[in-house]
Design brief:
Distance between the termini: 122 Å
Structural class: alpha+beta
Order of helices and strands: HHEEHEEEEEEEHEEEHHHH
Number of strands: 12
CATH class of one domain: Mainly Beta
Radius of gyration: 38 Å
CATH architecture of one domain: Roll
Helix content: 25-40%
Length: 348
Amino acid sequence: MSLNTQTRLQTAADALLFTVQKTTSHPEPMQNGEAMSPDAQDSRGPAGQEEHQGAVPSAPPLPQEPQPCPRPRLVFHTQLAHGSPTGRIHGFTNVRELYAKIAEVFDISASEILFCTLNSHKVDMQKLLGGQIGLEDFIFAHVRGETKEVEVVKTEDALGLTITDNGAGYAFIKRIKEGSTIDRIKTVCVGDHIEAINDQSIVGCRHYEVAKMLKEQQRGTPFTLRLVEPKKAFDMIGQRTRAPKSSEGKMVSGKETLRLRSKGSATLEETPSEFEDKAIKKVDDLLESYMGIRDLELATTIVEAGKNKRNPDDFAEALDSVLGDFGFPDVFLFDVWGAMGDGKNGRL
């Protein structure tokens, strides 16, 4: 064989090898429905992946939205008002759970706690823990002290008492009117828990129920009050605390407060606006005038029910849906509606 002939044969062989390698490495797609050769099928990869070859690739998954940062755990400092080490509590969602947490810290029963004040260990009704706790407020728990019984004779229609409750079944005296029947009984003090009337226990009754019972006592007929006074620290002994006539100030600090509710869970909320704050105080005054009770949580709920209503009828309907058990008189509702209107127009 000549050199030229050998060279041409080698060149042809190289060309054929290149063609076979190209076909094996990059099979052509099926044309007009023709089946692919076994060689081409083998080149597609491991069994079970054939159906994915040649498919249009799916879109990449959308990036997940970042999870919202959880709110920090709210931790509050607390002491027993008559004296104790400082404890730390958290994780409560209503007043009953708050009392349970305090009781757990100090190894006492929650039923021992009569009420709590904020930022003062004294029986100061202006600093009573109501519906809101500022995020930096210090909680003082007032516990049961001595029990006492007093005999009362009504000499006029009103006894001169303003009643509130702690949201956990204990009603207590929040105000004593100067010169009234009760004011003349020097053993009765602001902060005393009313445990029984004529030996009938009223533990578990709301403040408006207790006020109604006292109002129904007949003039000239003696009746008995069983009272439990809060345990006092040394510097509080001998005091007969009388709440001033002005309404309670806001016991809050910072822009947010923990709002406690008698029903439902606590929520972290913005502090009330200036209008809402003034309206709440005015409604609390009206509650005392018409019902003999003071309750900032109740006043706050009333204002919230009416602040976006356009007329008294809508307000009365909204109030009945959330506080129908109270049976507020119509004249009270109109006075409250007027007070909220005064607040909105800057007249309070």
